[in-house]
Amino acid sequence: MDDLEQLAKLIERSNQIVVFTGAGISTESGIPDFRSPGGLWEKNRPIDFSEYMASEDARREAWRRKFAMDEVMGNAKPNKGHEAIARLYELGKLNCVITQNIDGLHQQSGIPEEDVIELHGNTTYAKCLDCHERMSLDEVREIFQPEETLPICQKCGGIVKTATISFGQPMPIREMQRAEMEAIESDLFLAIGSSLVVYPAADIPVIAAQHGAKLIIINREPTQVDPIATLVLNKEIGETLDLVTKL
Ligand code: NAD
Ligand code: ZN
């Protein structure tokens, strides 16, 4: 039995599947990941949270990147990988998707919002960091784009940022707790398209394996979690998931 058949069998026998995704599932939709050659990391060193808070220049650079990135992310569509995962959900086999992505493509592929757990937030709106008042991106764009004026909260004057979690920013507590609970209850845990080096998100697949789930890793390159996995597929994501869910 080859590894694709093995994975198809495991999926057939499991009913509490949890999928965990990283930037790699969205590269086939045209959104670059961070660490691959040509990825975002090579072009832009990430701006961490303390820099964002401390420096107006950093905030300007963050908004500049955000609006440049939106030309790609705003038009991206779910690919074969997202669609295969949505099929598992429709079959009632998948409990939820835990994602590090901020692109909203799992929701667009048909998985209900309440079953997509976003560990690193969402880039489709902005928020005041003090009072959490929401601001739409259209509002921010109107303020920012003419002369790079930084948006401030209209309620309290606080600093406004996209609703994503930057490096150095506290993780969302409810999402992390739910992700851990789902990992513990899963019987099959698929970690897809993540380099598994961003913590604490990368702990979630380990927690699943420690609590008895079979851990499957699908990623182009090896990860440090590979040794505890039941199966590691160093393959392209879209084609692999498409084949496996149709076997
Ligand atoms: P990462 O960039 O560190 O790792 C992506 C992994 O996917 C790499 O190991 C790469 O080899 C693999 N990969 C890429 N395309 C693939 C394909 N088609 N088939 C198989 N493997 C493929 O991503 P990460 O682990 O998610 O961590 C980076 C952080 O950046 C995350 O926190 C995430 O929030 C954020 N991010 C999100 C997006 C998005 O929302 N689409 C994009 C870039 C970065
Ligand atoms: Zn405010």
What would a concise description of this structure say?
The protein is α/β, with parallel strands linked by helices. The protein has helices at 3-13, 40-43, 49-54, 56-73, 80-90, 105-108, 137-144, 173-185, 203-210, 237-244, and strands at residues 17-21, 94-99, 116-118, 121-128, 134-135, 160-164, 188-192, 214-218, 231-233. It folds into 2 domains: 1-31 and 78-120 and 171-247, TPP-binding domain (Rossmann fold, 3-Layer(aba) Sandwich), CATH 3.40.50; 32-75 and 121-164, SIR2/SIRT2 'Small Domain', CATH 3.30.1600.
Task: Describe the overall structure.
This protein has 247 residues and is α/β, with parallel strands linked by helices. Helix content is 37%, strand content 17%. The chain has 10 helices and 9 strands. It has helices spanning 3-13, 40-43, 49-54, 56-73, 80-90, 105-108, 137-144, 173-185, 203-210, 237-244, and strands at residues 17-21, 94-99, 116-118, 121-128, 134-135, 160-164, 188-192, 214-218, 231-233. Helix 6 links the parallel strand 2 (94-99) and strand 3. The two termini are 13 Å apart. Residues 22-24, 26-28, 31, 33-36, 39-40, 100-103, 120, 193-195, 198, 219-221, 236-237 line the site of nicotinamide-adenine-dinucleotide.
